[in-house]
Amino acid sequence: MNAEQKPAALRKLPAGVWVLGFGSLFMDISSEMIHSLLPVFMGTVLGVSMFTIGVIEGVAEATAAVAKVFSGAISDYLGKRKPLVILGYGLAALTKPIFPLANSVAWVFGARFVDRIGKGIRGAPRDALIADITPAPQRGAAYGLRQALDSVGALIGPLAAMLLMLWLASDIRAVMWVAVLPAFIAVGLLIFGLREPGHDPAPAAMRKVVYREHVRKLRLDYWLVVGLGGVFTLARFSEAFLVLRADDLGLSLALVPLVMIVMNLFYSAFAYPAGAAADRVGRRMLLMLGLGLLVAADLVLAYARSPAWVLAGSALWGLHMAFTQGLFAKLVADTAPAEVRGTAFGIFNLISGGALLLASVFAGSLWSLFGPAATFVAGAGFAGIALLGLLFRTMLRSRLAAAGSKRP
């Protein structure tokens, strides 16, 4: 796609994709202002151990994953997705003031728990809604655009946090208070700007067994995508450990958000091109590229000797996210029947969230027992195993295809 074609392709995307993208942008500004400082806040101000941080982050993401299962199925059942999207964003906005008020890890855990419930409620209906309003040949670009705008917000948030930390003499709580405003802007934008097409609710005969019937409609190719997504997620863990690695190597508190800035700069810059590429080129190649980038990121972070190397590893981490996250959303949308897309996204996110819980708890345990290098070496090992498995599957399919073509 050349430079002239890109703006035209973007203009052809439905308005709802842009509204959802900017809603994600403002919510991520708020969330990342807080989350770029939260691991250090827990570790230094509240005195929380690395293992506990890993548990909190893992449980938070697993909570979001479980909520996505139910919200996706409910959106299919009701034939409406917007109310659940707004409920999810609204819950997340309401949790933001709790972080600066927190005086114990229990407050932080509670806020993260409810915040992730909000994320879970909105995630599957939002992704299904994008598929509902976007023609199939443009879905990679649509998911890539939403991911790109989400990542722009995730870039602006840590940048704003860093500038405010410098201006406010590293007052973390004051910075967290500023983060409340963009969260409520996101909710207002979605309430007044988002329109969705009409959906038929689940047939009356299905309502008593709606979830079971929805699951039965999911085909084998969908379940292969779910399995691949779960294995892939086992190879990575919460980005909180990137922030903690920078702090471990002596990056000043005010500059710690630089880690998330660099990661999201590369994520946002490449998410849309990678998503658009998924509409035209081999998806397996993009997945292998993403896994290779994750292996490289983990190794750089494992053997980093200065904050500059942590920033380099964060850049590679952002690239791997750009090449994989939108692609998985497209694969789910393309392999699930339209009437059960909410359920499909919910199940996919449940499996991925469970894997992220295991990965984050394991990462925190390794950090506490053997140090930060062990955490990232293990991540590289899991990613390498997933990459080898994908390569083996590709070679096997090629050999079977070649053997089949030689038969008389």
What does this 3D model show about the protein?
This protein has 408 residues and is mainly α. It has a single domain (13-194, 214-406), classed as Growth Hormone, Chain: A (Up-down Bundle), CATH 1.20.1250. It contains 18 helices and no strands. The chain starts with a helix and ends with a helix.
List the helices and strands and how they pair.
Layout: H1 5-12, H2 15-35, H3 38-45, H4 50-78, H5 82-95, H6 98-101, H7 105-133, H8 139-167, H9 172-178, H10 180-193, H11 210-216, H12 220-234, H13 240-248, H14 258-278, H15 283-302, H16 307-335, H17 341-370, H18 372-406
What is the CA-based Rg, rounded?
A: 21 Å
CATH topology: Growth Hormone, Chain: A
Structure classification: mainly alpha
**Mean pLDDT over the residues:** 80
Provide the β-strand percentage band.
under 5%
Count all strands and give the number: 0
Cα-to-Cα separation, first versus last residue: 41 Å
How many distinct helices? Answer: 18
Query: How does the overall form come out from the CA principal axes?
Result: globular
Could you name the CATH homologous superfamily? MFS general substrate transporter like domains
Order of helices and strands: HHHHHHHHHHHHHHHHHH
